[in-house]
Predict the 3D structure of the following.
Amino acid sequence: MSRNRSRNQGLHWVHIFRLVLVLVSFCFVGYVSGPRLYRYLGHSVRWHSSCAACVCQCSSEAFLSLPRGLCNSEDPEMMEEMGKSYIDLLREELSLRTNMTKDKLEHADALTRETNKISSHFKKEAEKCNIEVRFCEDTREDAEAEFLAERKRSALWEKRARKLGWKASRSLS
């Protein structure tokens, strides 16, 4: 018995779910087609309202299509845009993208030129540094060679002095 009761409750929820789904569907259809249907029927049936009449010249043929938003027939920019063909819109889009690409390319070229300029500056500085390092290395080698030659001469003079009787004192004051 309780099994039949749980089955009936399950069927009851399925029916409620279907009813809610149907209601949501009707609401959606009303939302999508409502404004166009109102405009379509609005010319034949006058509704008394405090709002001014819509001066919209939208097509009443496709009242079941999705709404585009407000119909601004008095806006010259909107009328100009709406009057353009698909090809004109594509040309305009292509032109805008071409201009944007040119701007980005010019910016990239400017950055490349600046990078090359900075790189060239650092290469010159590195070359100057390398020249100075070579000069310092050569000078150090020359000083080392002179030092070795001076030590040899000092050793020779010390040897001669010892032969003549000189004795070195280790305390240097």
